[in-house]
Amino acid sequence: MAGKSLFQQVNDYAHRANPYPLYAEMRKTPVLGDEDGNYAVSSYRLITELLHDPRLSSDIRARPPDDPKQQAVAQSSISPAFIRTDPPEHDRLRRMLTRQFGPPHTVGMIDNMRGDLEKYVNGLLDRMQDRKQIDIVDDYAYPFPVDVICKLLGIPPEDEKRFHGWAEDIAFSLDPAIGEEGRKLIAKGLVARNELGQYMRALIDVHRKQPGNDMLSRLITDSSADGRLTEEELVSSSVTLLIAGHETTVNLITNGTLTLLRNPDVFERLRHEPDLIIPLVEETLRFEPPVQFNSQRTALADITIDGVTIPKGAPVYLMIAAGNRDPVRFNEPDRFIPDREDNQHLGFGSGIHYCFGAPLARVEVQIALNALARRLINPRLVVDPPPYRQSAVLRGPRHLLVDVDGIKP
Amino acid sequence: MRVLVDLNRCQGYAQCCFLAPESFKLVGEEALMYDSGPDDALKEKIERAAASCPVQAIMVEYMNGHADEMVKSGTSEAEARHGA
Amino acid sequence: MVHRADVLQSFKKNGSIVIVGASLAGLRATEVLRKEGFAGRLTVIGDEPYEPYDRPPLSKQVLAGWVEAEHTTLPRQHPLDDVDWRLGIAATGLDLRAREVHLADGQSVDFDRMLIATGVRARHWPKEDEARLAGVFVVRTRDDARLLRQKLETKPRHVLIVGAGFTGSEMASVCRDLGLTVTVTERSASPLIGALGGEIGSIAGDLQRQHGVDLRCNTTVTALEGDAERTLRRAHFSDGSTLDVDVAVIALGSIRNTEWLRGSRLAAGQLGVACDAGCRAFDINGIITDDIFVAGDVARFPHPLYAYQLIALEHWGNAVAQAEAAAHNMVNSEAERRPHISIPAFWSIQFGVNIKSVGLPPFADQVVIMQGSVEQHRFVAAYGHKGRTVAAVSFNQGRWLPYYERLIASAAAFPPTPPAYDVPIPLHPVPAKFPAANAPTSTPTIALTGYAPDEICATYLEEPPMTPVTVESGGKA
Ligand SMILES: Cc1cc2nc3c(=O)[nH]c(=O)nc-3n(C[C@H](O)[C@H](O)[C@H](O)COP(=O)(O)OP(=O)(O)OC[C@H]3O[C@@H](n4cnc5c(N)ncnc54)[C@H](O)[C@@H]3O)c2cc1C
Ligand code: HEM
Ligand code: SF4
């Protein structure tokens, strides 16, 4: 591996199955610049600081014009979504979207979905009842959040076949643009985003003509002190919700299942103690975070932290997964402790971009893992480590084969 | 049961309001109001809320069936400063 | 030779500790003492008949009628069943030499170490006969809040709030939410002036007016008038006008509960009980005591970021942090002592806005809007003192405060380098407009006696003078 920076190694597919030793190495230099001009920040304290630092931007347009991601955004036919903007735009968009998602304007919507979600995952398991082997990813962890986010937004779930490839290309393009390979991923992501945007535009048109009670319709018709969402804002927001709504959740369900299979005593405990799922999901977000690092931040000024100056314009990577295992912050960070106390993990980020969908994701994953614990009979991991997906940012297994003696009704 | 939120630490992420809307309410954009003495029937929801708080600002105490067994969550000021 | 460590161990096993004041600071200290292994006799004395409860909800959820006053009991973080709770009994005196606290029921409790956490009480309307009129309220305790809530349920026609500090402003906000007609009087130029200064205070004033409060600044109440039944009917103002009101809530700040320490030879008085950063009380001569500790609203302590001036902070977070530090220091050796030097912080909720503060705004001379929009009541303001950043206040922008907290901790230049977005350009620092620092009280309370070096010492003068009415401050230097 000589010649490759630590940051490059983290992104190297060869390390996908276990990047944690690299993160530990990285934490020895908590602000680490490499020759490409990338800065990786890996200690819990500094990540938290930077997530609240108004000199760090989420807007890729702030990067120098030769940055491949900057170029991709410039060529995109849809405007950046709020996850890729700064205040005041960000705050205004997020407020408008929150109105149709949660309190204070929309109270109880997510909580009320519990029953339907339980029915859905149990339906998935019912259909596998005579199987001896299942792929947690393709059979379970992927279809579930896709179905949920589609129904929530008002997207026909059968369209999944159309947007599946686009979603994956967009997810992969979140990785840092390293080398020729990286640039290709970004170019593919751009194409996919434009096509998914086209698809959404048409769908929004349909909802505008015949509004239903789905979130998309409500976003189209809503107006508040902040006004109405424009067509452009609707397109980019709904694309983001669709991608963020399932490309991450699939990994949390899969990472959770994998961790449980690697810790059979905990799996067993969960069977008898379903309430354990609440802290257990938080611990999974700490231990195996689906978003391993924030890959879209840019320094808008020279930022000096702990004696190191990150120059204006530099891409800054906040290494969530490294911070989550920082021994300065967490006792026994490399142990999976399902009822860990004081678990202030960074799995959903922090600050103004704190995950919008976190309340939904939590409910989904709690239900999905509890159903597995209750129903799988003698589950066993077939390959360990499992094969991983390409993405370094949205890290998770591509397949997770599990042998079972059966599935309880 | 008894609930306390450290509102200096709370950053209005509203995770608690999603999970236990009976007990936690957002006033305006980020001001949290909560019921400090909710009914025991809400225990499960409130526990979920406390576990989900991104800054671990929610502290809960209830009697766990046996009068002497106390359950709590949340972080003390000193613990919080340790790493933050 | 007895080892210091052995002494400490034996104290932790068999010693005795008394805590006076059974509220937030008292409870947190009790928990930390047990958590850190103090197994000896632990007595908590509180003059209120209740288990420790939380006060911030009283002017918010409780007054709004959502949470009952009885439902504010503080959760315990540690089992405390082996603590001797003496509730409903006031401490009336402290004998430092005998190491005894005297109680109102004639008993006394001896101790090896003691914590003073007696907080503050509401400053009532100074004219006693007027203060006793039915319809005149203060809010400091659970009982106060219950009584006022009951009154508000009768749909009074006009509520007068005297004093636009945090508590007064919060109560005005609740009253407006309840649809009541509200007048607020404030002797200075804007609400919250003691805590936030006139510049930011005037934004809070706009907020009040936009929510339909009849806010009268630079105005004081000169008299409260009752009818034959001794029920409040009318208020008279300094501008000569009158207003028919059926409720008057006095929100003129607080008085520190230190009277019981008179004669104890501690440095205790109207300004509180002075202590060092390790929470150890000073005696009347300014010499540190070893075994008497102080925490919470009643304490005055030096802070390195604020020129080591003795400051008293009537903030929830200060009571918690200081109690934790005090309790830790009570059961640890000198080498393990911890200073109470966390950066002050508080919040207030009013008119749908979350107001948060870090640092010490009243220490500042200038203020500058750093991010956001004042019109939309979403912004962060930074405060500076002689070119250094000393505080920041946010209105509905609390997620940025950790950044400013760091600037304050590192004594960053003022004005700070501007954020990269959502910034009013150019930054425009203006005077923060704090009222002149509290003038020293005109009547002296302490004097020196004796002439020879071994005789000279400080003594209390006779009866403390009547304390002047001042506006409530959220934390004044
Ligand atoms: C209505 C209201 C709203 C508030 N809102 C906020 C807010 O939004 N944000 C914020 O940061 N802070 C707020 N505060 C301030 C916060 O509640 C206080 O800082 C906190 O209560 C201080 O705790 P303490 O234990 O030091 O003192 P206190 O709570 O005052 O407790 C002292 C206790 O000691 C008792 N006592 C006094 N003398 C004796 C004696 N001689 N013997 C025995 N017992 C005695 C008292 O009766 C009392 O029970 C608010 C306060 C009030 C009243
Ligand atoms: C386990 C699942 C999930 C994880 C681990 C996760 C993680 C994250 C993280 C780390 C961020 C912060 C990004 C940043 O700081 O730039 C984020 C933001 C976001 N997430 Fe999630 N997420 C998950 C599920 C969801 C779901 C289900 C949705 C949609 C319903 C969603 C929508 C969003 C959006 C819109 C943002 C941007 C918020 C903003 O910029 O204000 N996420 N998520
Ligand atoms: S979840 Fe935590 S931070 Fe968010 S509103 Fe509730 S208490 Fe505050």
TrEMBL record, chain B:
**Record key words, sorted:** Electron transport, Iron, Iron-sulfur, Metal-binding, Transport
Entry-linked SUPFAM superfamilies: 4Fe-4S ferredoxins (SSF54862)
Keyword Iron-sulfur included in the entry's annotation? yes
One Pfam family from the record: Fer4_13
MF-aspect GO terms: iron-sulfur cluster binding; metal ion binding
For this entry, the protein name equals: Ferredoxin
UniProtKB/TrEMBL annotation, chain C:
Q: Boundaries of each Reductase C-terminal domain copy?
A: 346-416
Q: Gene3D superfamilies, per this entry?
A: 3.30.390.30, FAD/NAD(P)-binding domain (3.50.50.60)
What keywords is this UniProt entry annotated with? FAD, Flavoprotein, Oxidoreductase
According to its UniProt record, what is one Pfam family this protein matches?
Reductase_C
Cofactors demanded by this protein: FAD
Q: Which SUPFAM superfamilies match?
A: FAD/NAD(P)-binding domain, FAD/NAD-linked reductases, dimerisation (C-terminal) domain
Q: Which residues form a coiled coil?
A: none
An example of a GO molecular function for this protein is: oxidoreductase activity, acting on NAD(P)H
All residue ranges annotated as the FAD/NAD(P)-binding domain in the record: 16-323
Any one annotated GO CC term: cytoplasm
Task: Specify whether Oxidoreductase is a keyword of the entry.
Answer: yes
InterPro entries named in the record:
FAD-oxidoreductase/Apoptosis, FAD/NAD-bd_sf, FAD/NAD-binding_dom, FAD/NAD-linked_Rdtase_dimer_sf, Reductase_C
Q: What name goes with this protein?
A: Pyridine nucleotide-disulfide oxidoreductase
Q: Taxonomically, what lineage is the organism?
A: Bacteria, Bacillati, Chloroflexota, Ktedonobacteria, Ktedonobacterales
